[in-house]
Design goal:
3% helix, four-stranded parallel β-sheet, elongated, nine-stranded mixed β-sheet
C-alpha cells in the first residue's frame, strides 16, 4: 500500500507503489528483502547512498521493474541469480559497489534491456557468461575494473545494438579476441577491451585441485 499524504520520492498509481527515487540521500544500512513484495514497482533509484550488505534476491520478484539503479553504494557479496527474473528491465546499473562472485548466466534472460548494462568497479570474478550475448538490444555494455578471467565468449559479438560504449578493460581476460567481436568494434564510439588484460596470449591452464 502507498503511504497516506505522500512521501518525497515515492510515486503511486491507484494503491500501488510504482517508483522510488531516493538517490544521494546519505541513506545507510541494508536493503530490506521486503522490497520484493512491491510487485508493481517499475523504477528504483537508490544510487549514491551508503547501502551495505547483500542485494536481496527477492528483488527478482519485481517482474515489472524497468529501471534499477544500485550504483555507488557499498553492496557486497555476490549478485543474486534471481535478478535475471526481472524480465521487463530496460536499464541496470550496479557499478561502484563491492560485489564479488561470478556474473550470473541468468542475466542473459534480461533480453529487453535496450540501454545500459553497467557493472564497472566491483570485484566480480570467474568467466564472462556466454548467455550475456542474448542482450541484443542494449546500447552500452561495460564491465571494467573487475577480476573477470578467461576468454571473451564469441557470443558477445551478437550485441549488435551496442553503439555508445563497450568496455571490458582492467580485468584478467586472455586468449584471442573473437572475430565476431572485432566486427562489432567498428560501430562502437567508446571501445576498450584490451587495456589491463592479456588478450592475444594463451589463458593459463587451471590449477589442479
Amino acid at each position: 500500500p502507498c503511504p497516506s499524504g505522500g512521501w518525497s520520492g515515492i510515486t503511486c498509481s491507484s494503491s500501488n507503489l510504482v517508483s522510488i527515487i531516493i538517490q544521494s540521500q546519505n541513506i545507510q544500512g541494508s536493503l530490506p528483502s521486503q522490497f520484493g513484495l512491491l510487485n508493481k514497482l517499475t523504477l528504483f533509484y537508490c544510487h549514491r547512498n551508503t547501502f551495505t550488505g547483500m542485494i536481496p534476491s527477492q528483488l527478482g520478484q519485481l517482474t515489472e521493474m524497468r529501471h534499477l539503479w544500485l550504483l555507488t553504494n557499498r553492496f557486497s557479496s555476490s549478485l543474486p541469480s534471481e535478478l535475471g527474473q526481472m524480465t521487463s528491465l530496460l536499464r541496470g546499473y550496479y557499478s561502484k559497489n563491492s560485489l564479488t562472485g561470478t556474473l550470473p548466466s541468468q542475466f542473459g534472460l534480461l533480453s529487453v534491456i535496450d540501454a545500459d548494462f553497467v557493472l564497472d568497479y566491483n570485484s566480480l570474478s570467474g568467466s564472462i557468461a556466454s548467455e550475456l550475448g542474448q542482450l541484443t538490444l542494449c546500447t552500452e555494455f561495460t564491465i571494467i575494473e573487475n577480476q573477470l578471467r578467461g576468454s571473451i565468449p564469441s557470443q558477445l559479438g551478437k550485441l549488435s545494438s551496442v553503439v555508445s560504449r563497450f568496455k571490458l578493460a582492467t580485468n584478467d581476460l586472455c586468449d584471442d579476441i573473437p572475430s565476431q567481436l572485432s566486427i562489432l568494434s567498428s560501430q562502437v564510439t567508446d571501445w576498450d577491451i584490451t587495456t589491463g588484460n592479456s588478450l592475444g596470449t594463451d589463458c593459463p591452464n587451471p590449477t589442479p585441485s
